[in-house]
Amino acid sequence: MTALNHPVATPAVARDDRNVRFAWASLALLPFAVIVPMFLAPALGVEEQARAPFGVFVIVLVVLAALFAVPVLLAWWFANRARSHDDQRGRVPAIIASVVAGAFLAINVVSWVIWLLQDTL
User: Fold this and answer.
1) First-to-last C-alpha distance (Å) of the chain
2) Closest C-alpha to 104, from 52, 54, 53, 68
3) Domain layout of the chain by residue ranges
4) What is the pTM of this model?
5) Rounded Cα–Cα distance for residues 35 and 64 (Å)
6) Angle between helices 12-25 and 91-120 (to 10 degrees)
7) Lowest mean pLDDT among 14-23, 77-86, 108-117
8) Burial class (CB in 10 A: 0-12, 13-18, 19+), 114
């Protein structure tokens, strides 16, 4: 028999490392989630210094949440794949992605609420 007849198995460690690397690589999508909504409000006709109407705010917030969901879900998916191969290192980028996305969403909502309260006070 020759060596060509036998399939070569990939080691489990390589698969775990790949999933952890993909979990970290998914964090590279976070800057796009920050940049894209900055151009969305002007594209909807809101001036830079003007307060955005509630409808525009909701549209931008939904797009922002969707854009942040992609890297978070990818990071958790690859973290769970790594964990299924007994590698816990993928949880770190998944937790980082979740914290960054949650903080950014919270900051945007709180800043808009403060902007609304400024007019009433």
Assistant:
1) 85
2) 68
3) 12-120
4) 0.76
5) 10
6) 20
7) 14-23
8) exposed
